Amino acid sequence: MKTTNLNDQRGDLQTDKNMNATAIEGMSAEHRHIESVVKSLQDASMGLENGRRLRVWKLRTVVEFLRVYAGQRHHSREEALFFSIHSECSEFTQSCSLERLNHEYEKGRALVSMLEEQIAQYEQQQPEAGYALGQTLQEIAQFYHHCVWMEDATVYPTAKETITESVNRQLQRQFAEIDSAFGWDLIAEYEQFAANLSFRAATIDLYGGRVAAHSARSNVLISTRSCSIPEVEF
Length: 234
Known about the structure:
Blueprint: H1 2-19, H2 23-49, H3 56-85, H4 90-95, H5 98-123, H6 129-162, H7 165-182, H8 184-196
Helix pairs in contact: 1-7, 2-3, 2-6, 3-5, 3-7, 5-6
């Protein structure tokens, strides 16, 4: 019972924090975490070109971050935003159609699934696996960079001009429900992972914790192990 109360309090504190920011500000903050991971994927691809060996566990955690945090969670928020505004603003509907959102979501899922397969081949040291992995990392980085830029440059400015205070509060409540379903602790772990992720040479991992929670949407269990840093892996 004590644990439940502590978890409830943590959720209440997080909800209060989210309520202090607008819904759009909250989604923009998510973009910064996604950008951090995307930048690291570019470094990882460059590392492969330079003959460095990448840590497989770190790549697999990237897969789960993109699948759950950038995919399911962010897409759920986009859907909530779309359905809250589309009937009131034709300009917003043109810049943020449901078809475009779903297309991007499906493309992102396909790229992440491809990455997952290539990580397994890379771990098995199959011929040309490193080259194929590097190409996919670049493609994923370009895809997410484009999506983030489009939303920041076109979708969110239009939404800011359209959202009323009542709609903003409604979205904040929906966002809080989404995050509660995924798990506040899981989200915090993903964001910590994004902030500390690095595939660069001569860096020390700051993230050695565990991401362990079930997503209400996918029942994903993520685990990352404590670091014992091999000299040739990044």
